Amino acid sequence: MSEARVHTGIRVHKDAQLLAHIEDLYAVYVDAFCTPPWDEDEERAADFVKRLRVDVDRPGFTAATAVRDGELLGFATAWTTPAPFPDDRCHAQAAAGLGPDHTADWLVGARELDELAVRRAARGTGVAARLLETVTADAPGGRCWLVTSLRSGRAMSFYRHQGWTQATHPCPDGRGVVVFLGPRHPARALAPQPL
């Protein structure tokens, strides 16, 4: 077992107290997403901070942070997907991929993983898996879901390895987003699989 697995503590946050760590969260976001394959700029990281200040007040908000020796290694945020289904960010693409009935039945009211970010130095240590499990373990009825980009084969492989089921299959040209259903989501077996 690696040293990171032994000495990394996971802490759950259910409200705005998470914002006490905003500078560290920003630094982790930059380290995770302002590099390939995401290549986001620092403006997108600043947008994350603005969103987080609102997200902490969402129904069902839950977050987890991973800390080792006083350093924030990673975090995950999630909440309950509202009705009507949102049309901001990647939600419209997710709904288009699933169709209105599956979107309403599978995603609305489920735990939505919004962000999972881990410092590059902590990748491969099990931190991301522990954060993912922490924010989704108590999802009502096992209903949890996420969206990720086809740009990252590493992310796609990671979620599959964690038992998540890919529910949408856009053209594999490196663009677009895919919806994954959590390992205990009751609709997993209904998700269309590629030929």
Number of helices: 7
* Elements, N to C (H/E): HEHHEEHHEHEHEE
Give the class from helix and strand content and strand pairing: alpha+beta
Residues in β-strands, percent: 15-25%
Radius of gyration (CA) equals: 16 Å
Sequence-ordered SSE layout with sheet pairings:
Layout lengths: L2 H5 L1 E5 L8 H12 L8 H14 L6 E7 L2 E10 L10 H8 L1 H8 L3 E8 L8 H10 L7 E6 L3 H9 L3 E2 L10 E5 L14
Parallel strand pairs: 4-5
Antiparallel strand pairs: 1-2, 2-3, 3-4, 5-7, 6-7
Describe this structure in words.
It is a single chain. The chain has 195 residues and is α+β, with helices and mostly antiparallel strands. It contains seven helices and seven strands. It has helices at 3-7, 22-33, 42-55, 91-98, 100-107, 127-136, 153-161, and strands spanning 9-13, 62-68, 71-80, 111-118, 144-149, 165-166, 177-181. Strands 1-2-3-4-5-7-6 form a seven-stranded mixed β-sheet, with helices on both faces. Strand 4, helix 6 and strand 5 form a beta-alpha-beta unit. Helix 2 (22-33) crosses helix 3 (42-55) and helix 4 (91-98) crosses helix 5 (100-107). The longest helix has 14 residues, at 42-55. The chain is globular. The protein starts with a helix and ends in a 14-residue tail after the last strand.
